[in-house]
Amino acid sequence: MCIGTPAVVLSVEYSKMTAMVDYGDGVPREALIGISQDRVKPGSIVIVHAGVIVSEMSIEEVLEQIEFFKSILEGEELSVVRVYEQLLEASKRIRGG
Amino acid sequence: MFSKLYLELERELRYNKRAAEAVENKIHRLFIEYSGREGVERLKIMDFCGTHEWSITYYGLRSLMPRGLELVAGPGCPVCVVPSHYIEEAIKLSFEGVVVYAYGDVYKLRAKRSVKGAFSLSEARSLGADVRVVQDVLSAARDASSHGKPSVFIAVGFETAAPAYAWAILRDHLPGNLKLLSLVKLTPPAMFYSLEVSREKPTEPPISGVIAPGHVSTITGAKAWVPVAENYGIPVVVSGFEPLDVLVSILEILRQLVAGRAEVVIEYKRSVSWHGDVKAQSAVNRVFEVVDDAWRGIGFLPKSGLRIRDNYRRHDAIAEYGVRELKPGMWEKDMPPGCRCAEVVLGKAYPTHCPLFMKSCTPLKPIGPCMVSIEGTCAIWARYGSREFLDELAREIGEAS
User: Fold this and answer.
1) How many CB atoms lie within 10 A of CB B48?
2) CATH no. for residue B144?
3) Average pLDDT of the residues in B122-150
4) In contact, A39 and B114? CB cutoff 8 Å
5) Alpha helices in B186-234 (DSSP H)
6) pTM of the model
7) Domain boundaries, position B300
8) Does the structure's ipTM exceed the value 0.90?
């Protein structure tokens, strides 16, 4: 039971441990925060499983993913790495970094 | 902007043929090197999680593997392993006037014995019981508070779902009339058991590597799999769910085998950390206690289930309605006659080895538990096929002609 759907966090209600998220269809939906609340902020990309946020994609983790792909593919040029890098840029912009 | 980029990322991980071919070539090269050096003709890698099995079958990854490299599914579908007993208890409650909330696949799950003519919650509903399908516990909570009737939510899942139930209780999301029937299971004991039984048959190769569940590991952390790598001396790779993720994970397993290493490595780095989410683990520990639990078709596995602690018994359906717990003395094989789901969930048989598969047991009319959920191995093979499925059909056609 690992089906997870990526979503963007729109707003967070920390007292209830809930967040409004957008799965990409523009419809805000409520989800429980299953992980540490300080990892979930407006603009975070999260994975939602059965209505609960189980993971947040941090910038550091994305950088590690890029490095892992690069190392295992040993020099193969991968456009996936380029997309990850764009994702990081967008995340920095939303968070004002 | 985010959504657009995420879609682009998904496209890359799913349809980048060049990257997939590069990984595939490396897999073939390493398999030849390893099998030649070790003198093995067959090598088994277990994909534990139902969603991995879905990706492997849906994207046809088995057809990219060299002959002899087998990908076998494990017990990673929590719906498939819910004992018939608890479905019967839930049906009974529904006939006693309790509103029962269930996920869509639990709703269709078939019990071994009927209760008042109903083999499943869906049949109970047809016979007049109030059974409602929901996608998450918050929806059940909202609905139950709107009508105020006695209600039960069937809380199935693995470590991934457990924090949702824990937070629902800790943050008072559950109205007083809604109780949870916790059937949550823990995955490491089932993985140990699968690896153990894979060594029982000397004619079959044992599992030589594990593709470990990604989202379970977001909560538990990859460290949960260290005992697997250490005790069984096999590589474990925590993998993402896109086809390129799974291919890269298989490649990493082969790299370790060739180098003679057995380590836990995270491929799904964008979501999984070594320690997992400690706050989620702590919430689960506060609300639940670990118990020996029964797995359908398998039996009791030590410390493999979660039940609500006494402190929170006001939320517990077992305490409220006196739901009978299955005890080891009551255990019996609870598969329908002829069904081989018990072997399928342990990676000992492929769905095509079952005499019922796609004959009397189909996704539209499932008999065995693995044919119900979208994460059940039989249901996945029935929908998307596989090279083994085609081989089986070819054999049958050959025999008939």
Assistant:
1) 28
2) 3.40.50.11740
3) 96
4) no
5) 187-197, 214-220, 226-232
6) 0.88
7) 84-185+278-330
8) no
